[in-house]
Amino acid sequence: MFRRVVMLLLALNLLACTSVPKSVWTAVDLPAELSESSGLLCIGDEFISFNDSGGLPLLYRINAAGQIQQQLELSVKNIDWEAITSDGQFLYLADTGNNAGKRTSVLIHKVPLDWRMLKQPYQPVTLEISLPDQGKLKAYQHDLDFEALVYQQGALWLISKSWASQKPALYRLDPSLHRQTLAKALPLESPDFLVTDASFNSSTEQWWLVGYTDPRKAIWAYLTNSGFQAQIARYDKEFQLLEVQALPTPGQVEGLCIDQHQQIWISEEAGKQKPARLIKTGLSSR
User: In CATH, what number is assigned to the domain containing residue 177?
Assistant: First the structure.
């Protein structure tokens, strides 16, 4: 009798282990051309990324191994590219970085999702968003810097990094208007980190934001040279904060997207003695 009970317990344990696989964190190095990967978009089994301020005006399509499959040159300057999103037909590339606080407007470039017939360098349609006049701003001490852009329900949603207030703000933009002014911000509960990218899962109607603790607040990480304190947050469709959790990486996380299997991916810029990376977090957005 005792032997049969033991065998039954072993069988149940084996069944549990084989039927409920654990999520796995996997990372691949990105090529040197993407050393400052600053945004990420999941497209089928591939991804689109690019470099941030001062980089070449190139969009890169890469596979899950981090290998470049295709690139598209744009005939616009890369002032400070920070995020990318799509409505299923077009890409919206956010040239919205403003750490120094010197910009009076930011730009969003509209590019076809299918690049096969495009002549390079491609001239995108550009949306210009005027920023409110807040006088002379000090670098890294203002809230008019933006590193996250999401297309959702016919609108573009721009999220501020908010160096000064430490409270990200959410702005609704009209993708059909070539010129518009940044309107009043919608409330967004702070996840207590600087937001560097975001994505919306339409099947669960939840928002995901990624970023890292302000280095000026993460004194221990700075003193020990242990890197950035990467974090991810989940919100409901009404922008109510549901959870925040740390990510097991010291890298500078800059990109976030959700693939067709509801898996969450992130990208990191290169750091000291380490390349940029594309990471499958093992987290599901279901």
Answer: 2.120.10
In a domain, 11, yes or no: no
Distance CA 74, CA 54 (A): 14
Count of domains for the chain: 1
Q: Which domain holds residue 160?
A: 26-284
DSSP 79: S
Q: What is the pTM of this model?
A: 0.90
In whole angstroms, what is the distance from residue 146 CA to residue 83 CA?
A: 9
- DSSP for 9-32 reads HHHHHHHHHHHSPPP--EEEEPPG
Per-run averaged pLDDT (10 residues), the chain, 286 residues: 40 38 82 97 97 94 98 98 98 97 98 97 98 95 97 97 95 98 93 97 96 81 70 96 96 97 97 94 93
Task: Report the C-alpha gap between 51 and 33 in whole angstroms.
Answer: 8
